[in-house]
Design goal:
- The protein contains 12 helices and 11 strands.
- The chain is an alpha/beta fold and 348 residues long.
- The chain folds into 2 domains: 188 residues, Rossmann fold (3-Layer(aba) Sandwich); 148 residues, Phosphofructokinase domain (Rossmann fold, 3-Layer(aba) Sandwich).
- β7, α9 and β8 form a beta-alpha-beta unit.
């Protein structure tokens, strides 16, 4: 279901925990802490619901479930939420709530040597609140952090079970078949592409000839590919640009021109991470985000400018941005169910 990549972390930590508890003559019921990380998805709260509801069914092993306010930042500042104060109904409603209910954060903890003070602060907070289980709901960097916390806890004689709960709209986490968050974005992009294409087609004779939709996906083209679900062999999108394939301006413009001549219009879906042959992003802004990744500034307008200069067609473009990942109103049911399932499985 997507949580297999983190099993090895949990097993290693659990073995240490057993040794720790036996030192005190028997099991000690400890609390759990859950935190959300990075960009949220339409279904991340379903994972939170899975964690909390399942933990409440194992009261003989897990005491309270705390949640970090604004993710790992809340843990570091000891600003945590006691979810035991929330009603059964309120927790159940998380399954249908958009956004990140407890707040998330883009804050990357680097290596143990570079960020040792922050890691030790986490252990300090865990000790203060008797945290024996840490559930970190995020992407690749978050999985790495959960592993490092587990290692440091053992080295400081405070073993803690750390479970990474997968979440990313890009669908690019290793070992997972597909990742919670992606299904809903795929549905949103496929529907939006089809609807926009019908709009453009209806006016193509006398108005817009080219429509460009920019979607997320820095290194993986799964979201862009999902636009292909919108139509049949000759339907829009006519062009999909992937980050895995270097951009060829001449071939791109030739294809756009061919589509306009054949269909009277051209619909293009482009992943934000499309690169030149030299590896540079088409939309790179020479700045870095909180995780040290290149900040991208918008590839759709860059492509629109190429179309204007090279072909002179009237165009429109849209940048789906946060809309694609936050659209809970059309979230995929399968995605919701899987997001809940990985939260439940993390506890079990």
């Amino acid at each position: 279901m997507g949580y297999a990549s983190n099993v090895r972390f949990a097993v290693a930590a659990t073995l240490s925990e057993t040794k720790y508890l036996s030192r005190f003559g028997g099991p000690v019921k400890q609390n759990a802490l859950y935190a959300q990380s990075g960009g949220v998805t339409a279904v991340i709260n379903a994972s939170a619901c899975g964690v909390i509801e399942t933990s409440r069914k194992h009261k003989n092993k897990i005491g309270k479930v705390f949640a970090g306010r604004n993710g790992i930042i809340g843990v570091l500042t000891e600003n945590i939420i006691d979810t035991s104060r929330e009603s059964i109904r309120d927790i159940a409603s998380l399954r249908y709530t958009p956004g990140g209910a407890f707040g998330s954060a883009r804050h990357k903890l680097k290596g143990l040597d570079e960020s040792r003070a922050e890691y030790e602060r986490l252990i300090e907070v865990f000790k203060a609140h008797n945290i024996g289980y840490f559930f970190y709901n995020g992407g690749g960097d978050s999985m790495d952090t959960a592993h490092k916390v587990s290692l440091l806890g053992r080295s400081l004689d405070f073993p803690i079970t750390c479970i990474g709960i997968p979440k990313t709209v890009d669908n690019d986490l290793p070992v997972t078949d597909n990742c919670p968050g992606f299904g809903s974005v795929a549905k949103y992009i496929a529907i939006s592409t089809q609807e926009a294409a019908l709009d453009v087609a209806s006016m193509a004779k006398t108005s817009t000839k080219v429509f460009i939709l920019e979607v997320m996906g820095r290194h993986a083209g799964w979201i862009a590919a999902s636009a292909g679900l919108a139509g049949g062999k000759h339907d829009a999108p006519h062009i999909i640009l992937f980050p895995e394939i270097a951009f060829n301006e001449r071939a791109f413009l030739a294809r756009v021109q061919t589509c306009v001549k054949r269909y009277e219009y051209c619909v293009i879906v482009v992943s934000e991470g499309v690169r030149h042959t030299n590896g540079r992003f088409l939309a790179e802004t020479n700045t870095l985000d909180a995780f040290g990744h290149a900040q991208l500034g918008g590839v759709a307008p860059a492509l629109a400018n190429l179309v204007r200069k090279g072909l002179g067609y009237k165009y429109h473009y849209a940048i789906a941005d946060y809309l694609q990942r936050s659209a809970r109103h059309i979230a995929s049911k399968v995605d919701v169910d899987q997001a809940y399932a990985v939260g439940k499985a993390a506890v079990e």
